Amino acid sequence: MGHFFYAFQEDEESNVLNTKLIWDPTRRTRNPVVVAKELITRLALLCEEYRQMSHPNEVDFEGLRISEAFRKYVFAASELQRVDLGPLSHEERLCFFCNVYNALCLHAHVVHGPPNTVLRRWSFFKSLSYRIAGMDFTLDDIEHGVLRGNQTRPYGLIRQLRPGDPRMQYVLSRRDPRIHFVISAGTQSDPPMRILDGDNIDEELHFATESFLEEACKISPSDREVTLPRIFSWYRDDFAKGTLELLRWILPYLGLSKRRALEVLLDSAKNDSSISIRYETFTWNAEARFSAAIVRRKRRRLEQERASTPQLAEDDKPPEAGPSLSA
């Protein structure tokens, strides 16, 4: 009698992190913005639950990875495989892809660990992906391809997506540099990860930029020097070309005292060399930062929204292991 070996989809290793369960194509999927918001909220809550008490800046990714709650999250993420992005507006698409970026980044941290070497960073951003609307998107595809309007990555030579790539249909036509303050690679030098509601994208982007710069921007009037995060060096063309133009860009996002100090410097500046910019060293240490209170508010809001909508038809419900916010 012969021997038969079976491989289960859940047991297969893949760089596509949300294919442990294949979404039934006969089932409907929900609004993509809602799906993405639920996923990142759920994973953020799990990270807070597994944050180490003795080292509050560190998450026990190994403990989270083997948990039943994370297994259910992975099944829930399969809904992204079949979402319909076609009807989304520019703002909805931005909201969706920012939330998915943060969810994928956290998911990758849990499964593969923080990208703490050059080689691991290359694999982390260029090969780990989610299947979205039938196509695979890596972190680089989402950031540089979709959110940045299909630009080259820092120090890159070619655009992220090639002509004819079917993912080009989702590239944002208007580039907004403030996306750099709502997406995060989960490192010490990145902005805290944010969960976008999508009700007022401009307000959310403004607040995120304001919060990050108030903490990260330093001004030394005596040295005529401004210290900025490394993000402004890597993505200089997203913000502004020259030094003075860049400093004028950040001006509205600073608190009163820093804004006044920078205004004095700008008023006396004759050219780009009048003020020097120093970029901080980027620290790759893992530090998946959230405000636990904000995440809890996001969960309550999602639960209230779900309770206020009519009961979902059976075909519209997420799978049994799907995105229950209480799990």
UniProtKB/TrEMBL annotation:
Domain DUF547 stretches: 88-213
Domain of life: Eukaryota
Region (Disordered), start-end ranges: 301-327
InterPro entries for this protein: DUF547
Protein name: DUF547 domain-containing protein
